[in-house]
Amino acid sequence: MNLEYLESFYITVKCNSISKAAKSLHLTQPGLSMQLRNLEKELGASLLKRSNKGVELTEEGKVVFDYADTLLSIQGNIQRDLKNLQQERPQLMIGSCKSVGEYALPCSIYTFKQLHEEVDIHMKVNSSAEVIENLLNHTINIGIIQHDPKVDDIVTQTIVSDELLLVGNCFDAPKQISMEELKEIPLILRERNSGTRYLVEKAFQEKGIELEDLNVIYDLNSPEAIKSSIVAGKGFSFLPKLIIQQELKKHSIEPVTIDDLTIPFEYYVASRKKYKFTDYEQMFVDFIISSKRGFC
C-alpha cells in the first residue's frame, strides 16, 4: 500500500475538504484527487463520497481511516526514533498558546534546560487552535493550550488552573460593573481561534449574550499589544491572570469585577492520542505538570 496516498486520504478526511487538504499537503487539487483515486483503485473500494459540503466516508472508508490513523502514527514513531538515533542530541518540539508561550513557559524551559543541558528545545508560539493543528500535522509533539479542544485524536493533561479577568486602565477602570454595563464599555479582544477568545465567547453565550451585543472596538493577536492598549486608556479586555501578575502588582492596570460572571479555565498539555513520548519528552511533561514546579 502506498503510504503517501494513505496519508493524503487521511488528511483529506481530517480537513473535510479536497482544497484544504491539497493546501496542507502542498499538492494541487487535481494531484490530490488522482492520489485518492489511485488509493481506491489499489484497495478495490470506494472510500469517499464528495459533495458541496465536503467529503464523507463510505463504510469501507471508515475501516481504512481507522487503519490509516494507526499506520501513520506508527510511521511517525519510527521516523522519530530513527531520527533521534541519528542525532547526537535529543530534541523537544513544543508548541504553546501565546498566554503561556510568551510569559511563563520560557522560564520553565530555561529551568528544564539547566537540568538537562544535552537536550535541544524548540518552541513555536501560536494560538491554541494552531497548536492543535501543528500536533495533528506532526510538526510538534507537545502542545501547551488554554482549553481542552475535545478533539478525538488529541489527549490532554491538566497543568494549572487560571482565570480570565476583565482589566482596564488604572485611572478609569471601575471596581465593579453589571452585565448590562459590560455591554457599553469599549472591549479589545484576542483574535479569532485564540483560546482566550473561545473562553470569552463561551462564557457570554452561557449568559445568553453574543459578541454582537458588546462594544468590541477591535481585536489583536498579541497579549502585549492588548496590555499596551489598556494602559494607554484605549479600552478594556479579558486577559489570563497568569500573564498580568506584574501589572496588577504595579497597579498599571486594574481588575474589574462583573456581577454574576467569572471565567475560570485550565491550561493543558496536549499530545496525539497514539503518540508515545520519548524519555525526554515525558520528563518535560512530568516537569511541567509537577505541582512543585510547573510554570515559573
List the helices and strands and how they pair.
Layout: H1 3-15, H2 18-25, H3 29-43, E1 48-51, E2 54-57, H4 59-86, E3 91-97, H5 98-101, H6 104-115, E4 120-126, H7 128-136, E5 142-145, E6 154-169, E7 176-177, H8 179-182, E8 187-190, H9 195-206, E9 216-220, H10 223-231, E10 237-240, H11 245-250, E11 253-258, E12 263-272, H12 279-289
Parallel strand pairs: 3-4, 3-5, 7-11, 8-9
Antiparallel strand pairs: 1-2, 5-12, 6-10, 6-11, 6-12
Helix pairs in contact: 1-2, 1-3, 1-4, 2-3
User: Helical residue percent?
Assistant: 40-55%
Q: Please give the largest β-sheet.
A: 8 strands, mixed
Examine the coordinates and then state which fold CATH places here, giving the name of the CATH topology of the largest domain: D-Maltodextrin-Binding Protein, domain 2
Q: Structural class of the helix and strand makeup?
A: alpha/beta
Give the helices and strands as they follow along the chain. HHHEEHEHHEHEEEHEHEHEHEEH
What's the total number of strands? 12
Number of domains: 2
Uncertain residue ranges: none
Number of helices: 12
CATH architecture tag of the largest domain: 3-Layer(aba) Sandwich
Radius of gyration: 22 Å
From the structure provided, what is the oligomeric state, counting identical versus distinct chains? single chain
The level 1 CATH classification of the largest domain is: Alpha Beta
What is the overall pLDDT average?
Answer: 89
Pfam families: HTH_1 (PF00126), LysR_substrate (PF03466)
Domain HTH lysR-type: 1-58
Family: Belongs to the LysR transcriptional regulatory family.
Protein name: LysR family transcriptional regulator
